[in-house]
Amino acid sequence: MTDELESAAFYKTLLESTHAIPWKIDWESMRFAYIGPQIEKLLGWSADSWCSANDWAERMHPEDRDWVVNFCISQSKEGVDHEADYRALCADGSYLWIRDVVHVVRNEAGAVDSLVGFMFDISERKKIEDKLVHLQQELKELSFKDGLTGVANRRMLDSVLDKQWSHARRSSQPLSVIIFDIDYFKQYNDHFGHIQGDDCLRQVARTLSQGVTRHNDFFARYGGEEFMLILPETDAAAAAKVAERCRSLIFKLQLPHPISPASPVVTVSQGVGTITPQPSDSLKAFIDAVDKNLYRAKQSGRNKIVNG
């Protein structure tokens, strides 16, 4: 008998010296048969305040409570060991992230007798996970962002263009595209230098991005001094108005360009195209056609808009 008492005392000391918090719930009564005293240090609630499973549920973040309780009950009824992460309410009103690891104990008849498990404080792990998610999102955004101008890059542009082309074809809706080219930009760079040239690109990109007026419009750097504006569900007349608005916005910038044959200030040439794509149509052929309109705008004196 003495050995049994010593053994029980040993295991009790072992359980209560760990950072994990051991507990046991009687399945029939749904009352705590035991919970480690470490719970008070972690959450601020004394061990004797954990009377029933209801105390456990009530001391859970409202956004987590329903799914965690329903999940744990269903798994326990099936006799399946399980674990769940949730935010546990502290006595001071704050929350800590907890991972509950649950083992289902059956009696000789095979019915659920009790639940035993450990609670682990995973708050620091969650903070690290949240930081990693945030960093991954930042990296994702950076991978789709042009490093110089801050607008979307060609990689993102190609992806969005493919999706909008497919959507337009499925929905039989018009798709319009505007390609912009800064007039005589090489001469601008040669005259002012690359630092001011880069600043010009940034200002033009920021200004042209104001052509995005709806949530599904999309603006990106196409390459070099060229940019593209994608206008889903936009007919030719509406696209022409957007192009004129963009031309006016660039003119209002009044960026000096003293050696441009087109204007004493920075201007852009624009190729505009609209299509309601059919199964036989090609996205590449459409973009080539818009690019040809841009070429015509440049050939006809620049600072022009050519629609097709």
UniProtKB/TrEMBL annotation:
Residues 173-308 form the GGDEF domain. The keyword Transferase applies. The keyword Transferase applies. It catalyses: 2 GTP = 3',3'-c-di-GMP + 2 diphosphate. Keywords: Nucleotidyltransferase, Transferase. It holds the Pfam family PAS_3. GO terms for molecular function: diguanylate cyclase activity. SMART domains: GGDEF (SM00267), PAC (SM00086), PAS (SM00091). This is diguanylate cyclase. It comes from Gilvimarinus japonicus.
